[in-house]
Amino acid sequence: MKKLTTAALTLLWVCASFAASADFSQCRQLFANRAVPTSNSQAMAPRALCYSSFAILYSGRSRTPIYVAQRLNKAQLQTKIARSNRFFADARLPRAERAELEDYKNSGLDRGHMAPAGDMGTEESMAQSFSLANMVPQSVVGNRHAWAAIEKATRKYVMRAAGDVFVITGPVFEANPRTIGANRVWVPQHLFKLVYDPATGRAWAHWLDNRDEARAGKPISYAELVRRTGMEFLPSSSISACDSTSSTDCWSRWAASSL
Length: 259
Description:
Extracellular Endonuclease, Chain A, about 20% strand, alpha+beta
């Protein structure tokens, strides 16, 4: 038997570090007020996956995340970690429910991070962020430009925030989604990134079409995100209104952080 390489051993350890659970019992600290989002997602064959710096509600049906939760702060983002680029299928997931590297090959789409590699503050979390459980098939141009700009703006906001900021990111699918690969990984129609700052009580969401021509527009309110997705992402949090017409003008804050 061939000896396992250091990289292979690292990925095996990364996958085994946190067991799959039904209720995020190992990583509730990554959610605002330790409260997990509520939704009627049983039809998506959900599985809770904990990692060191993010948590994924994974769908065995779409073979993508339903959402990915993060708890970010300035200290975490100030630590610069070299990008891993070692994508891997998560061994905790049943083979019949997971995406494989071959599914993305020649698809014309990126393996798009939901918890961005640029947010990772340790080598362990950087390696974990390349799990395919953290990926969706994403437009190449959209991923590398409009979506990357949203990720960068979110980090800039966190760097200016008074404390922890909670971020939840995920895909939105149409009724009959396009699929890629032998495992029929669903391609999302839209992507969202919810930002919640407990220090201010403000929450807003970025909403982007999953296509090359997509351009980031004004963020939408938390209430509008809940309406569009049918999910209550912050069930135990007090949320201030946050849209372009409210007194708490989150669009201006986001635009300023993008400069």
